[in-house]
Amino acid sequence: MLVVVVDTNVWVSAFLSPHGTPAKLLKAFAQESLLPVYSAGIETEYRDVLYRPRLNISQDVLAEFMEMLADSGHRASPTDFDTKTLPDVSDAPFIATALAAKCPVITGNRKHFPPETGVKILSPAEALARL
Q1: Phi, psi (degrees; rounded to nearest 5) at 61
Q2: What total of structural domains would you count in the chain?
């Protein structure tokens, strides 16, 4: 099982492109070969972003996803770290949670996760290859 923190952009892509690599990661989560680690801050961002009306993602599908996350994901308490060097401070919960869980982050936006944070970054394709 691959244990990871999943950046919101990966889940957005999974729901908007049902045949793409992120959608395969969502399927791997449903099949319990991928274990998403999340924190309260990450859950809040997932809800804030995924439920945006302009994304037009089914409310029922999102409710099922959030229930699956609560039931089968791993909730962790984030680690404190210095956020001063982050290109986007809104990514701090993802880094802090990955540091706490000692696992990588899957993202389509590597530049928001600088190497000096100490977090390993995987693209969706790299994560899929590890399953």
Answers
A1: -65, -45
A2: 1
**Phi, psi of 2, rounded to the nearest 5 degrees:** -95, 120
Q: Are 23 and 14 in contact (CB under 8 A)?
A: yes
In degrees, rounded to 5, the angle at the alpha carbon of residue 50 between the alpha carbons of residues 86 and 71 is 95
The structure's pTM equals 0.94
Q: Which two tokens stand for residue 72?
A: 């089968």
**What is the rounded CA–CA span in Å between residue 53 and residue 85?**
32
Residue in 98, 82, 90 with CA at minimum distance from that of residue 37: 98
List the CATH number of the domain containing 63.
3.40.50.1010
Which residue range is the domain that position 103 belongs to? 2-130
Which tens digit of pLDDT belongs to each residue from 6-29?
999 999 999 999 999 999 999 999
